[in-house]
Amino acid sequence: METQSSLEFQDLSTFESFKGFWHYYGYGVDQQDLIDREFKRIKGVTYLDHAGTTLFPESQIKGFCDDMSRNVYGNPHSHNPSSRLTHDTVESVRYRILGHFNTCPEEYSVIFTSGCTAALKLVADTFPWKAASNEGPGSQFCYLTDNHTSVVGIRGVTALQGVGTVSVLPHEVERRARKPPTQTNGEESSAPNLFCYPAQSNFSGRKYPLSYVKGIQSQQLYPACEHRGRWFVLLDAACFVSCSPLDLSQYPADFVPISFYKMFGFPTGLGALLVRNEAAEVLRKTYFGGGTAAAYLVAENYFVPKPNVVSRWDVTGRICPLIVGKQHS
């Protein structure tokens, strides 16, 4: 029978063998060389909050500072060379983001926000919630019990609008799945419903099946199979995309909030909401500001939003320097 010490020796020997053969594992370069070059500041420090936010490499900060010191970026809503540079750079970043998630501008739009929480609040404030009435059932706001605090917080918005809230235990999604109820024209419901779940739990690190996206949208999975209406899926991907690929062509979630600092470590005040263009058409925006208005009157209640999804929602001018810095990531 092997002793504890011999087992420990074997484990150590196995790890050393692994490290010796795969010393570039996950990075494409020698890990020690990478640490010496990019993370000298963590010498003697054990960093255990990678799930919260990764550490930025030194080259990212240097690249950002170099870019900002060499170029003049102006308000993207103006018309001059510095504004054009900002506009073109931001649009280039949008394309790169969509490409990273294996989708395109014809399918999705990138709305920059101050982080994942701001992206979630944007959905909460603009989703066309419908209260139940004599005319039919209302909207349902449903979420996994294993969800980010900012997701659960959406119920503070829905409660004021008379919208039903359903918290779902993880094992119920598939266990209670069944074919959706047969609907006749007289029973059809136009109420929009929203189901929120994390691709990866911020608390436990558990990854949930991405197949839930289509399962909910097609009303095959619980709770969508028990409530009539159109179902939208909000996939909280902030934790997931920091270390895992997300293919939106296969898992076309309607709303995907992300935080770039979880992916790159810098900057901390930049995130985005990836919105499927089909779903974007149902959102209802009441507040307008920045460069999101095509026209409005001061003395009358008249307002015309910008024509496309991005310009209608995205106040890019306030965060464009941070977006520009992401070119070096």
**Largest sheet properties:** 4 strands, parallel
Radius of gyration: 23 Å
Query: Which parts are unreliable, with pLDDT below 50 for 5 consecutive residues or more?
Result: 1-9, 317-321, 324-329
The shape, in one word, is flat
Q: What is the count of DSSP helices, taking H or I runs of 4+ residues?
A: 13
Give me the strand/helix succession.
HHHHEHEHHEHEHEEHEHEEHH
User: Which structural class best describes the helix and strand composition?
Assistant: alpha/beta
Distance between the termini: 51 Å
Q: Beta-strand percentage?
A: 15-25%
CATH class categorisation:
Alpha Beta
Strand order of the largest sheet: 3-2-4-5
Number of strands: 9
CATH-derived topology: Aspartate Aminotransferase, domain 2
SSE diagram, text form:
Blueprint: H1 4-21, H2 31-38, H3 58-70, H4 81-100, E1 108-113, H5 116-126, E2 140-144, H6 149-152, H7 155-159, E3 164-168, H8 172-175, E4 192-198, H9 212-217, E5 230-236, E6 255-259, H10 260-264, E7 271-276, H11 277-280, E8 293-297, E9 302-305, H12 309-313, H13 320-325
Parallel strand pairs: 2-3, 2-4, 4-5
Antiparallel strand pairs: 1-7, 6-7, 8-9
